[in-house]
Amino acid sequence: MRLLLVEDDAQMGPTLQNALSQAGYAVDLSVDGIDAEALGDIEPYDLVVLDLGLPKRSGMEVLQNWRSRDNHVPVVILTARGSWEEKVQGFKAGADDYVAKPFQTEELLARISAVLKRSSGTSGGPLQVAGLQLDEDAQSVKLSDGTTFTLTGTEFRLLRYFMLHPGQVISKSRLTEHVYEYDSDKDSNVIEVYVNRLRQKVGTDLIQTRRGQGYIFGSA
Amino acid sequence: MSLKRRLSLGLTFTLSLLILLQWALITLVIERVTETQLLERLESESEGLLASVEINPDGSFELNSLRISSLYQRPFSGHYFVVCTEQSCRQSRSLWDESLNIEPIPSGKRVQASLIGPNDERLFTLHRGYYKQGHNLTIMVAQNISALDEDIFQFQMLYSLVSAIGLVLLLFIQWLIVGKALQPLQRIQKQLSGLRRGETAKIDAKGPAEIQPMIEELNRLLNTMTRKTQRSRAALGNLAHALKTRLTLLNQTAEREAIKNLPDIQSSLNQVSRDMGQIIERELKRARLLGSAMPGQKVELEQEIAELSKTLQLLYRDKSPVIDWEIEPDLLFIGDREDLLEMLGNLLENACKWCRKRVNISVYQNDYCHFVVEDDGKGCDESELSQLPQRGYRADESVPGSGLGLAIVSDIVDSYSGEMLFSRSSMGGLKIEVRLPLIV
């Protein structure tokens, strides 16, 4: 899952980016409204964490601009004001959820995960697809026979993306886009290696290769 | 008493007095002038009669008819005389068979009187006493003044009518003048009440020179106050933003690996940050409250409540509460929009948090503006009802929340000098009724 984090605080931005990365997200950090708006339009993010008090262009304006251009990327608003007026405005502008500062990282992660599940049409609770159960806190997967495997960071990101988009043909480049950060080395061969490792853990049948198209998860 | 009323009353009084005095004076003068002229005429008649009296040596007397005006010859002509000596009296032919009473008066004296003559004529008489050729004479001359009286009466009537019409006309004109002169004040008054109801932000009307400085000063004050409020709201917002961002950082610091291994320290750090967060939230919200100190603004209740409900349904998506609202048509809340949203948001969130499925809000207006929020949850015990608005009081610790919501509502209600009542709803849950005084 690839996230855009828009936070102008020089200390909080990197710390939060770090925390989100540890939770298994590929996170790009943007520190002002104009930059964030452009990134959100260009890159295929799965979710944006948007602070409202931004330099150059307010978060509310950025969100409104995205929505007016039919960019429906899920947005979780972060704000310090916490007034009802702002909450109403935020939801009216098209936000998907709202987290008031000060928050604890856990809380933000829970909200992000809930919004992601909702936007992919999965119901709440732990992610369960095709007999697999993903523990997002422990970053581990439980098979239908009860065995549990811990996942490496990239494995976890891949599996979560697959589980949130079951039955869809997903190209390697799409996987790369959603699993890696903006400025990282995107070698699609690496994806093949990771998919193979994942297959060894969850079973080869669950992730099938469609030649020339990509992968499909859980269709069998 | 209004300025217009005061001016009108004063002007009406003085104008009426003036017209009345003038009417009385003219009436009096007319009467006096006629009487004087009449007297002068009767006097000369009397002198003429005296000249025509010829006294015989035996004391009897004759009137020289050549010297007597023909007016006294025609019967009941309205002009009469009686001449008496000590022994006998003669009266004018015009009296015919009637007679007039005459009292002898000493020479040199004169008496004027009114009496009723023949055919009920009203007579004005002049008696004079003379001394001629060794005899005392009394001559009375009388004239019928019925026609004259009639003329005077008619004149007085006409004059009264003209005066009355003039008075009414003058009063009407002065009423118009006063109204016109006070028109700018009325415009200002209208704008002032518009200001209070939040329809305008300042007074545009130009007042007369006496009042213009006051308007300018008022506008200046309003402007300063609005700017100050905006500035302090913005400053408070910035302060909240900065403090809360730092608190989030503190939270993140507490989540570091090194501290995770010291659960005591981590939990006390979390506790401190949570407490500080709440204090900031409550105190800054309280400081941002406008209350009824500033001129209000119109708030479109229906629209605001609809939007709040939509927001709450998104916030409580898992429960998806049904929020019904009933708002008296044409009801316009006047106050600060942000205050109102804060109040309703917290009330509705509280209801959504506790409801099973349904939340009701109704707004109506009589002497107060009433906001009633009810839910179908399990409600509260009697003993808990009184503790609800206290800061941090949470009736049920198992449901997440800060316990701040109702405390903030209570602050807002206080700042509008309203009241807040808790009771059990017929729907099963809690019923909160907020009464805010209307701004007139």
TrEMBL record, chain A:
<dbReference type="InterPro" id="IPR001789">
    <property type="entry name" value="Sig_transdc_resp-reg_receiver"/>
</dbReference>
<dbReference type="InterPro" id="IPR039420">
    <property type="entry name" value="WalR-like"/>
</dbReference>
<dbReference type="GO" id="GO:0005829">
    <property type="term" value="C:cytosol"/>
</dbReference>
<keyword id="KW-0804">Transcription</keyword>
<dbReference type="InterPro" id="IPR036388">
    <property type="entry name" value="WH-like_DNA-bd_sf"/>
</dbReference>
<dbReference type="Pfam" id="PF00486">
    <property type="entry name" value="Trans_reg_C"/>
</dbReference>
<feature type="domain" description="OmpR/PhoB-type">
    <location>
        <begin position="124"/>
        <end position="219"/>
    </location>
</feature>
<keyword id="KW-0805">Transcription regulation</keyword>
<feature type="DNA-binding region" description="OmpR/PhoB-type">
    <location>
        <begin position="124"/>
        <end position="219"/>
    </location>
</feature>
<feature type="modified residue" description="4-aspartylphosphate">
    <location>
        <position position="51"/>
    </location>
</feature>
<dbReference type="GO" id="GO:0032993">
    <property type="term" value="C:protein-DNA complex"/>
</dbReference>
<dbReference type="InterPro" id="IPR016032">
    <property type="entry name" value="Sig_transdc_resp-reg_C-effctor"/>
</dbReference>
<dbReference type="GO" id="GO:0000976">
    <property type="term" value="F:transcription cis-regulatory region binding"/>
</dbReference>
<keyword id="KW-0597">Phosphoprotein</keyword>
<dbReference type="GO" id="GO:0006355">
    <property type="term" value="P:regulation of DNA-templated transcription"/>
</dbReference>
<keyword id="KW-0902">Two-component regulatory system</keyword>
<dbReference type="Pfam" id="PF00072">
    <property type="entry name" value="Response_reg"/>
</dbReference>
<protein>
    <submittedName>
        <fullName>Transcriptional regulatory protein QseB</fullName>
    </submittedName>
</protein>
<feature type="domain" description="Response regulatory">
    <location>
        <begin position="2"/>
        <end position="116"/>
    </location>
</feature>
<dbReference type="GO" id="GO:0000156">
    <property type="term" value="F:phosphorelay response regulator activity"/>
</dbReference>
<keyword id="KW-0238">DNA-binding</keyword>
<dbReference type="InterPro" id="IPR001867">
    <property type="entry name" value="OmpR/PhoB-type_DNA-bd"/>
</dbReference>
UniProtKB/TrEMBL annotation, chain B:
<dbReference type="GO" id="GO:0004673">
    <property type="term" value="F:protein histidine kinase activity"/>
</dbReference>
<dbReference type="Pfam" id="PF02518">
    <property type="entry name" value="HATPase_c"/>
</dbReference>
<keyword id="KW-0472">Membrane</keyword>
<keyword id="KW-0902">Two-component regulatory system</keyword>
<dbReference type="GO" id="GO:0005886">
    <property type="term" value="C:plasma membrane"/>
</dbReference>
<keyword id="KW-0808">Transferase</keyword>
<keyword id="KW-0067">ATP-binding</keyword>
<dbReference type="InterPro" id="IPR050428">
    <property type="entry name" value="TCS_sensor_his_kinase"/>
</dbReference>
<feature type="domain" description="HAMP">
    <location>
        <begin position="179"/>
        <end position="230"/>
    </location>
</feature>
<feature type="domain" description="Histidine kinase">
    <location>
        <begin position="238"/>
        <end position="440"/>
    </location>
</feature>
<dbReference type="InterPro" id="IPR036890">
    <property type="entry name" value="HATPase_C_sf"/>
</dbReference>
<keyword id="KW-0812">Transmembrane</keyword>
<dbReference type="InterPro" id="IPR005467">
    <property type="entry name" value="His_kinase_dom"/>
</dbReference>
<keyword id="KW-0597">Phosphoprotein</keyword>
<keyword id="KW-0418">Kinase</keyword>
<dbReference type="InterPro" id="IPR058619">
    <property type="entry name" value="PhoQ/CarS-like_HATPase"/>
</dbReference>
<feature type="transmembrane region" description="Helical">
    <location>
        <begin position="157"/>
        <end position="178"/>
    </location>
</feature>
<protein>
    <recommendedName>
        <fullName>histidine kinase</fullName>
        <ecNumber>2.7.13.3</ecNumber>
    </recommendedName>
</protein>
<dbReference type="InterPro" id="IPR004358">
    <property type="entry name" value="Sig_transdc_His_kin-like_C"/>
</dbReference>
<keyword id="KW-0547">Nucleotide-binding</keyword>
<dbReference type="InterPro" id="IPR003660">
    <property type="entry name" value="HAMP_dom"/>
</dbReference>
<dbReference type="InterPro" id="IPR003594">
    <property type="entry name" value="HATPase_dom"/>
</dbReference>
